[in-house]
Amino acid sequence: MKVLQVVDGTGWGGTKEQVYLTTRELKKLGVDVHIALNFEYNQMIEKLKPYDVSIHFFEENKPNARYRWSNYKRLIEIIKNNDFDIVVANSPKAMDYVNIAYLFLKQKPKLVAVRRSGRVPSFISKHLKYSKSDKIVVVSKQVADILKENNFFPEKLVVIESGIDLERFKPYPEEKLKLRESLNLPKDYKIFINVANWQLQVKAQDKLIQAFSMLKCDNCLLLLVGLDTDKYALQYAEKFGVKDKVIGLGFRSDVPDLLNASDFFVLSSNLEGIAGALLQAMATGKVCLSTLAGGIGEYLVDGYNGFAVDIGDVEAMAKKMEIMLNLSTKEYETISKRAVETARNYSIENTAQKYIKLFKELTNG
User: Is the same domain home to 79 and 205?
Assistant: First the structure.
C-alpha cells in the first residue's frame, strides 16, 4: 500500500501535529507512506528524518501560493510518477491543490479528505471540492453529526479521532518544582496554562484572559503558549488589569515540560475538532477546564475527569477556575487520574490503525 500525505504551508499547530504523528505511525506499521509539502518546511523534515519517510516538495513559500501554477505542476508530477494507491489531503488548502492536480491525471488514486472542525463548507466548496473525495475523515462524532445535519456527504464520512503521543505526553509530578526552576517560573504560584496558536475567533484567548482576571488570587499565573501569544497576550492582559499575571510565551517545543510544571489547563475555544491540546494536557495529569466546543463533550465530563463550560460563558469559566483552585489534594489527584485514563483512549497508535483499516477498505485490501 502506497500513500501520499499532502500538507500545505509551514508552522505548527493541531493539523501539522496530526500529519506528523500519523505519517510516523503509518511508517512504523509498514505502510509505504510519502509526504508532499512546502520547500521550506524544515520543521516537518527534521521531525520525520528518523523514520525514513519519502519526502516530496511541491509548494513554494510565496504569497498567493494557491494561485501559482508551478505548485500544481509539481504536485501533478509527484502523484503521476509514484503510483500511489491513496492520496490524503490534510486541510482545505491541501484539498484545493489535490483537486486541481486530479484534473490532469489519467490514473487517479483514491482520495481521502480530512476535516478537523465542524465548520460547514460553503455550497461551492462542497460541490467543487469535497464531492471528488472517496472518503472524508472527521476527527469526532460531533463533527460528523454537524456535517450530516447539513447533508454534507453523509455516506462518505468516516470518524477517526485525532491521536496523541502518549510517550511524549505523560505525567511526572515529582519533577514539577525542578521544571519550574529550569523554566524560570515561580515555585509557590498556582499556574494555569493554555496551549493554542493566537486566533481569537477560534481559540478565544481574550475571553480566557477576561475570566482569569475575575479570579481573586494574588499568587496565580496564566501562561499562553502558541504562535503569536508572545505578541498579543500582553495587550489583553493590560486591558483586563492582569498584565503582571499573564505571560505569552509564543511557540514552544517544550510543551510537555510546561504542562507538567503547571497546575491547571484551560481552553476557551469557540471551535474545535477533537482538541488535541486538551487531550495532551489530560495525558499529563492536569486538571483541565474547557468549553464544550467540537467533540470535547465526547470525553470531557464536568466534575469527573475535568471541568466544562458552555462556549463563550466567561463568568462560568471564572467560577470553575475558582473551584479548581479550591480542590483538595485528594480531589485533584482523583480527577487527574481519571484524566490520564481518558487520554489513553486517544493514542496515535489507535488512530493509525483506523487509517489503515480505511485504506484497506478503499483498496479492497
Answer: no
67 pLDDT tier (thresholds 50, 70, 90)? confident
Q: Are strands 110-115 and 157-159 parallel, antiparallel or unpaired?
A: unpaired
pLDDT tens sequence across 103-152? 999 999 999 999 987 788 888 888 888 999 999 999 999 889 999 999 99
In a domain, 145, yes or no: yes
Say how many CA atoms lie within 13 Å of 257 toward its Cβ.
12
Contact assessment for residue 154 and residue 225, using Cβ atoms and an 8 Å cutoff: no
Given a contact cutoff of 8 angstroms between Cβ atoms, the answer to whether 163 and 350 are in contact is: yes
Q: How many CB atoms lie within 10 A of CB 131?
A: 11
Contact 270, 201 (CB under 8 A): yes
End-to-end CA distance of the chain: 9
Whether 180 and 286 map to the same domain: the answer is yes
Domain range for 183 is 173-345
pLDDT at 269 over 80: yes
> 55: buried, middle or exposed (CB in 10 Å: 19+, 13-18, 0-12)?
middle
Contact 90, 7 (CB under 8 A): yes
Strands (E) located in the chain:
2-6, 32-38, 54-59, 86-89, 110-115, 135-138, 157-159, 190-195, 220-225, 246-250, 264-267, 287-291, 307-309
Assess whether 144 and 205 both reside in one domain: no
Number of domains comprising the chain: 2
Chain segment 203-216, per-residue pLDDT in tens:
999 999 999 999 98
- Quote the pTM value: 0.88
Q: Grid coordinates standing for 113?
A: 479528505
67 and 185 together in one domain:
no
According to the model, what pLDDT value does residue 116 have?
A: 84
